[in-house]
C-alpha cells in the first residue's frame, strides 16, 4: 500500500492492521435505524444531537477503560446521546465486532461502526446502522474506491458517514455520493486536535448534507462552537469516556 510520509506512525500502523484484517463470510443485509431521524428526535426534545463513542482506548489515550461497554452505552443513552459510535478496531482502540453486536442489541438508537474499512468484504463483518468510511484512507493503493464502497454499503442497508479533513476531501466525498459527512478535527500527521479545522472546512459542505463535527470536542463551549460553525451533530469520544459517562454526556447534550 502506498502511504504518505504525512501520516503519523500510529496511523500507518492502524492502516497496516486494517489491510490485514479479513472480511465477513456472508454478505450482510441490515435493517438500519435512521441517523437523521435520531438527530431530529434529539433536537425536538431539546438536546444537542451527540453521537457518543464507546472508545476503550486509542493511540492518544493513556490506559484503557475496561467497564462493560453495554453498561457504558446505557449510561450514554441515559445522558441524552442521540446515537452511539462503537470502535470495532481491536489493536489500537480495544474494540471488537462482538462489542458492537452486544451494544446494538441492548439499545434502540442508531449505532455507528467506527473502524478503518478498506475493502468491500470488511463491510460484512458485523451489522451496524452506520459505517464510517475515511476519504483519506480510501485513496491509498490497493483499497477499494470510495464511491464503490459507499454504494456497496448502501446495497447492504448501511447508512454511510464519510470522514474528511480538508475541503478537497469534502469535494471527493460529494463526488462519491456522500450524504452524511464528518469533518475530523484530529489531524493525521501529529494526531493533534484543532477545532478550527471544522470551522475552516464546514463552509465547503452544501446545505442538505448532514454534517458531523468529530474529535476534540470536550466542553459545552466546544459543542456550541461546532454548532455555530454548522454542525448538525457532534461525535464525542474521550470527553465522554473520561470519568462519569452519564454526567459527561448530559453536560454535552443539555446546553
Ligand atoms: O482517537 C485517536 O487517538 C485516534 C488516533 C488515530 C486515528 C484516529 C483516532 N481517533 C478516531 C476518531 O475519529 C475519534 O475516536 C472520534 O472522532 C472521537 O474523538 P474524541 O472525542 O477526540 O475522542
From TrEMBL:
Its EC number is 4.1.1.48. It comes from the Archaea. HAMAP family: IGPS_A. It catalyses: 1-(2-carboxyphenylamino)-1-deoxy-D-ribulose 5-phosphate + H(+) = (1S,2R)-1-C-(indol-3-yl)glycerol 3-phosphate + CO2 + H2O. This is Indole-3-glycerol phosphate synthase. Residues 28-252 form the Indole-3-glycerol phosphate synthase domain. Keywords: Amino-acid biosynthesis, Aromatic amino acid biosynthesis, Decarboxylase, Lyase, Tryptophan biosynthesis. GO terms for molecular function: indole-3-glycerol-phosphate synthase activity; phosphoribosylanthranilate isomerase activity. The keyword Lyase applies. Belongs to the TrpC family. The keyword Lyase applies. One of its GO terms (biological process) is L-tryptophan biosynthetic process. Pfam families: IGPS. SUPFAM superfamilies: Ribulose-phoshate binding barrel (SSF51366). Pathway: Amino-acid biosynthesis; L-tryptophan biosynthesis; L-tryptophan from chorismate: step 4/5. CDD domains: IGPS.
Amino acid at each position: 500500500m502506498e502511504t504518505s510520509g504525512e501520516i503519523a506512525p500510529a496511523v500507518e500502523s492502524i492502516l497496516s492492521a486494517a489491510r490485514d484484517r479479513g472480511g465477513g463470510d456472508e454478505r450482510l443485509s441490515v435493517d438500519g435505524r435512521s441517523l437523521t431521524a435520531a438527530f431530529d428526535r434529539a433536537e425536538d426534545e431539546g438536546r444537542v444531537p451527540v453521537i457518543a463513542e464507546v472508545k476503550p482506548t486509542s493511540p492518544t489515550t493513556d490506559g484503557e477503560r475496561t467497564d462493560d461497554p453495554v453498561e457504558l452505552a446505557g449510561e450514554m443513552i441515559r445522558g441524552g446521546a442521540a446515537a452511539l459510535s462503537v470502535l470495532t478496531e481491536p489493536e489500537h482502540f480495544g474494540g471488537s465486532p462482538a462489542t458492537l453486536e452486544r451494544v446494538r442489541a441492548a439499545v434502540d438508537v442508531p449505532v455507528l461502526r467506527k473502524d478503518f474499512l478498506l475493502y468491500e468484504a470488511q463491510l460484512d463483518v458485523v451489522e451496524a446502522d452506520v459505517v464510517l468510511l475515511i476519504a483519506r484512507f480510501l485513496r491509498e493503493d490497493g483499497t477499494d474506491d470510495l464511491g464503490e464502497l459507499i454504494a456497496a454499503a448502501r446495497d447492504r442497508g448501511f447508512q454511510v458517514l464519510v470522514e474528511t479533513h480538508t475541503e478537497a476531501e469534502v469535494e471527493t466525498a460529494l463526488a462519491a455520493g456522500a450524504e452524511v459527512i464528518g469533518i475530523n478535527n484530529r489531524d493525521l500527521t501529529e494526531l493533534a486536535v484543532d477545532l478550527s479545522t471544522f470551522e475552516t472546512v464546514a463552509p465547503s459542505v452544501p446545505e442538505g448534507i448532514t454534517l458531523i463535527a468529530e474529535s476534540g470536542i470536550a466542553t459545552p463551549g466546544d459543542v456550541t462552537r461546532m454548532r455555530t460553525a454548522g454542525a448538525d451533530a457532534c461525535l464525542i469520544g474521550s470527553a465522554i469516556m473520561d470519568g462519569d459517562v452519564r454526567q459527561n454526556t448530559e453536560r454535552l447534550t443539555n446546553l
